Structure formats: structure tokens, C-alpha cells
Amino acid sequence: MQEVYDFLKKCGTYYLATVDGDQPRVRPFGTIEMFEGKLYIQTGKIKEVSKQIQANPKVEISAFMDGKWLRVSGKLVRDDRYEAKKHMLDNYPSLQAMYSADDDNTEVLYFEDATATFSSFTEEPKIITF
Predict the structure, then answer these.
(1) For the chain, which residues make up each domain, given as ranges?
(2) What is the pLDDT of residues 68-116, one digit of tens each?
(3) H-helix or E-strand spanning residue 10
(4) Three-class SS state of 67
């Protein structure tokens, strides 16, 4: 999982896909952290992406960098603990103008039953599960 985290962190922007009814939705994200051995993302509970994840927690991330791409598929699980939110916001100080670890909007979610696949045109795919 460390390799997945390192790639996404270095990449800076990745794309998160959710489902909205029968319509796929994809948007750029930039928050990625490891906390207590789990891979976390962050959003706001008032956003449509949060509502989509709560309705169907199966998501996929896609990222590209240096001729390699990564896809991470799995389930996102909400973690409402103050400590998890604080960890994320401490590592993304720019978000502290919009979010707080003790507000009712900040949402951090971790991957469960995830499969990450690193691919390129020159190497065999590398699969990591966590």
C-alpha cells in the first residue's frame, strides 16, 4: 500500500469515479493520506460526491504520471473520528480554511477491499491488494 500512497501523493491530482444512479461521475481529487495503516481521502459531506459514495461505496481512482498509470478500486468507508479528520487536515493545511476536524461537514474515508493496479506500455501490470 505504501507504493500506492507514494504514487498518488507524488502525482498530486488523481481522478475519483463514483456512480450517480446509472451515470458515472468522475472528478479531480488531491487529498491522499495514510492513517493507522489505511489509505484515506477527504471531501465534504454536503458535496454530491459524498452522497454518491454513501449510496454506493464502490469507487475507482485513476492517476497518471511518468508514463505509468494507477487504478485503485474498492469500497470507501466513512471514518467520523476526530483523530482521522485532524490527521488529514494537518497534512493539508490549505483545507483548514474550508474544513475543521470538529465540524459536521468534513468527511474522511478509507479504502476497504481495495485492488491497485500499476500499468504502463512497457511493463507487466503490478497488482497490490489491501
Answers:
(1) 2-129
(2) 999 999 999 999 999 999 999 999 999 999 999 999 999 999 999 999 9
(3) helix 2-11
(4) coil
Q: Are 69 and 63 in contact (CB under 8 A)?
A: yes
Phi/psi of residue 42, nearest 5 degrees = -140, 145
At the topology level, CATH places domain 2-129 in Pnp Oxidase; Chain A (2.30.110)
- What average pLDDT does this structure show over 36-56? 98
d(CA 115, CA 75): 10
- Judge whether 75 and 111 are in contact, CB under 8 Å: yes
- The cell for 120 is 504502463
Strand-pair category, 106-120 with 126-129: antiparallel
The whole model's pTM is what? 0.95
